[in-house]
Amino acid sequence: MTDHTTTDPATAAHSAAFEIAYETANAARRSLFSQAAAYTAHLVRQHLPEAASVIINAEARELHEVLDTNGEPMWHAPTSAGHDLPDSVVDAVDGILRDALPFGNPMRAARWREAPYGQPFRIVPLPEPVQPREVTPSGVMRITAPGGVTVKAMIAPGVGSFILGGIKNTREVKDRVRAATVNGGYTWPAGQVVVHVETGSDELAEGSQYDLAIAAAVLGAAGRFGIPDKTVLIGELGLNGQLRHVANVPDLIRTGQQAGHLNFLVPGVDYADARANGDGVTVLGPDSLATAISFLEEMTLS
Questions:
Q1: Do 143 and 233 form a contact (C-beta atoms < 8 A)?
Q2: Could you tell me if 133 and 190 are in contact, meaning their C-beta atoms sit under 8 angstroms apart?
Q3: I need a surface site. Which of 2, 97, 185, 259 has the fewest CB within 10 A?
Q4: What is the pTM for the complete model shown?
Q5: pLDDT digit string (tens) for 21-51?
Q6: Residue of 217, 199, 226 whose CA lies nearest to 143
Q7: CA 288 from chain center: how many Å?
Q8: Closest CA to 135 of 216, 192, 195, 220
Q9: In 78-230, at which residue ranges do the beta strands (DSSP E only) sit?
Q10: Sign of the dihedral through C-alpha 272, 273, 278, 284
C-alpha cells in the first residue's frame, strides 16, 4: 500500500483508519476463501473421499474437476462415468464459488494457483478432513486475564454456538476471537462454546486486552493444552491471528504481580517495555495466537 503519512492530525487519523480497515478486509477475505475450500471439501468428500483438490473455473464460478492425491482426475464436468458426484453437490459448490469469488482475486488472497489448463482455471487444495472429537460438558478451562479477571470456557455437546458473557461489546470480541482462532490455524470447536468473563463484581469487563485469554480458554477447553499456574494472558487479537498492542502493559503486569502471578504473556510489540518493567516475573512476548499457545504448551510440559 502507498504510505500517505502526514503531520496533519486529521489526515493521519483517516490514514490509520484506512490501514486498519484494509487489514481487516484482507483478513476477512482470506478467511472467506479458507472456509469456502473447507466447505467444498466437506461436500465433495461425502461422495469422493479421496479428493485432494479441485479445479474451478474462476470466470464462470463453477466446479470443473476433482483430483486425487496424485493429481489424477476423479470427476470432471459435466459428468464422469463411474465416479458420480451428484448434481446437488455440484450446484452447492457452484453456489459457494458464486458467493465467495466476487470478494477478491483468489490467486492473491487464497493462493489458488493457476491450473495447467491456464486462465481462468484455478487449483483449490482441499484441507485435510478434521476428525470429530467427542466433546463433553466436563471440558472446562479457567484462565487469568488482566486486572484480576478470570475467563472461564466450557464446551458442551449440541448445535454449534458461541455464547460470551461478562464483557462489553460481545459481538466485536466474538468476531475477533473466532476469526483469529481459525486464521491462526486452529479448528473452531464443535458444539456449544460458552465463555464467561468474571470480574469479581457486577461490572462488565471492557477492552480488547482480554482477547488472548478468551481464545486460549476456548482452545484449552477443547483439550489442546493445560494452563500453568500463576499465569496471566494479555493481548488483543487481530482477525489474522496476530497479537496487537495493548495500552499500559507494565501497569497490568504490576497489578498481576501484586496478586501473586509470576508468568505473563504479552503481545510481542509490547515485550520490550513489559520486560524492562517486569522485575521478578517471567515475561514472554508471542506475536500471534499460535505462538502464545505454543508457549503455553511448553510451559505446561516443563
A1: yes
A2: yes
A3: 2
A4: 0.56
A5: 777 677 677 778 888 888 899 889 988 999 9
A6: 217
A7: 10
A8: 192
A9: 121-125, 139-144, 150-156, 161-165, 192-198
A10: negative
